[in-house]
Write a structure and sequence with these properties.
Immunoglobulin-like; elongated
Amino acid sequence: MHRVYSLTFFRRLLPGALLLLASAAHAQQASDTTSVRCTPPQPAMFCVDLDGRASVDPAAGALTYRWLMGDGTTLTGPAITHCYKERKNYVVQLDVVVDATGEVRPGQKFIPVNLVQQDIIDFTGPARVRVGETARFAAPNAQLAACQNVQLIWDFRDGLGGQGRTAQHVYRRPGTYAVRFSMRGYGASGCAASHYVTRDVVVEP
């Protein structure tokens, strides 16, 4: 019997700030520069997308994919998305069921999901504020796991900026500002590269 179990695996950190392409053995390097336009903040959760459609057994025919997500959740389907409520280390187990016979083939893949050592480039802030109102921003989970002395830098896109895990800013003119949060550090190759994310803030009169 010829079985081919391969897996396309990428991790996605919500709220939409970082899309991290990875496999079970390779994660984004600190030298990679990431930029993505964010949607308004959502409740903080840590999500993974898993795709097992490349896993086939031609002799067995159709298969059902059963994912044990490591937090008590079980999902079925060739491609799934799951959001974890805690930033911890998990191991996802992929079981395969042969539809024709009901045979269960447990543990065809074990996928480590390390949310503790994951690079996190993300911040929260208001989607809308008024001129003269204080806009508050925060990056409580931001980290470059392989880097030391990481600087957290804010660019409010009106000529002013700030540093630190939290920041406040007052806009003096209405408009839409693509607030940029960037991180730079020291250590592994590429830590000094700019890792950044942007989110629009609408300033009303």
